[in-house]
Amino acid sequence: MEGIVATDDVMGGEPRLAGRRIAVRQIAELILDGDNSPAEVADQLDISLSDVHLALAYYYDNPDEMAEVRERHHELMREARKSALSPPDTVSR
């Protein structure tokens, strides 16, 4: 789809808006999971409303790929939480 690109060395190869570091997944999650309108997402990310709809069209046209991308992203987030440093239970002075 013109306007959507995927490059192995940019954003882990996730589909994204051409010329931007804004993933299709990010846009879809802001709308589907974040309860934001397309216009709000366009404003938040400083992109056009047509870019938001382009990303959503790609998301819906490629459900298997996007399910894989979402799962891979969520797995990376789970791994990051496991390896993140946690503050001690008590703080001594």
Keywords for this structure?
93 residues; Arc Repressor Mutant, subunit A; mainly alpha; 4 helices; 2 strands; single chain
Multimerization status: single chain
Separation of the first and last Cα atoms: 58 Å
Shape: globular
CATH C-level:
Mainly Alpha
CATH architectural type = Orthogonal Bundle
Strand order of the largest sheet: 1-2
Indicate how many domains the architecture comprises.
Answer: 1
Overall pLDDT score: 91
**CATH fold node name:** Arc Repressor Mutant, subunit A
User: Helical residue percent?
Assistant: 40-55%
Q: What is the CATH superfamily classification?
A: Winged helix-like DNA-binding domain superfamily/Winged helix DNA-binding domain
- What structural class do you assign from the helix and strand content? mainly alpha
User: How many helices does DSSP assign?
Assistant: 4
Q: How would a textbook summarize the main sheet?
A: 2 strands, antiparallel
Strand content: under 5%
Counted beta strands: 2
Which series of helices and strands comes N to C? EEHHHH
Low-confidence stretches: none
Q: What's the gyration radius in Å?
A: 16 Å
Task: Please provide a written account of the structure.
It is a single chain. The longest helix has 21 residues. Helix 2 crosses helix 3. The model has no long low-confidence stretch (mean pLDDT 91). The chain is mainly alpha-helical and 93 residues long. The chain starts with a strand and ends in a 10-residue tail after the last helix. It has one domain: Orthogonal Bundle (Arc Repressor Mutant, subunit A), CATH 1.10.10. It has a two-stranded antiparallel sheet. 55% of the residues lie in helices and 4% in strands. The protein is built from four helices and two strands, in the order ββαααα. 18% of the residues are buried.
